[in-house]
Amino acid sequence: MIGGPPWTRFGTIPDNLARPSGPFLREFVVPVPKKKKSKSKSRSNRAGAWKLGKPARSLCPRCNNAKLPHTVCPSCGFYRDRVVIDVE
Ligand SMILES: [Zn+2]
Predict the structure, then answer these.
(1) b/e for 31-64, b at 16 or more Cβ within 10 A?
(2) Would residue 63 count as lying in a domain?
(3) Residue 9: its pLDDT value, please?
(4) Taking residues 55-84, what's their average pLDDT?
(5) What is the Å distance from ligand 1's center to 86 Cα?
(6) Which of 49, 55, 65, 76 is deepest in the core (most CB within 10 A)?
(7) Is residue 39 in some structural domain?
(8) Mean pLDDT score of the chain, rounded to an integer?
(9) Which long-range contacts (CB under 8 A, 24 or more apart) does 44-52 make?
(10) Cβ atoms within 10 Å, residue 67
């Protein structure tokens, strides 16, 4: 066992992964956070997981307006190379 403060945690490498080079690599100190995370810190951290990313955007090759990819352009009515919908 390696020495250390009483709150140090130890881990062991399983025998099938340990190298035959020596016993010193079999045990190692596992990183332990110094301070307890406050409720608001961990809750705000979890709240970030719900955040949505920006929607995908592509430019219409005809009128250069932003549109959703793989959809008809709402400003000129084109999809690929032909008119699909009537836009006044
Ligand atoms: Zn367009």
Answers:
(1) eeeeeeeeeeeeeeeeeeeeeeeeeeeeebeeee
(2) yes
(3) 65
(4) 91
(5) 12
(6) 76
(7) no
(8) 79
(9) none
(10) 19
Q: Both tokens of residue 36?
A: 């307890």
Q: Kindly report the pTM of this predicted structure.
A: 0.41
Give mean pLDDT, residues 54-79.
92
Tally of structural domains, the chain: 2
- Taking the centre of ligand 1 as the mean of its atom positions, its distance from the CA of residue 56, in whole angstroms, is 16
- pLDDT higher for 84 or 39? 39
* 28 and 18 Cβ atoms separated by less than 8 Å: no
Q: Which of 74, 50, 46 is nearest to 60 (CA)?
A: 74
**For residue 1, is it within any domain?**
yes
Structural domain boundaries, residue 1: 1-33
What distance in angstroms lies between residue 88's CA and the mean position of ligand 1's atoms? Answer: 13
> Residue 38: pLDDT above 60?
yes
| Structure token pair of residue 40 | 């608001």
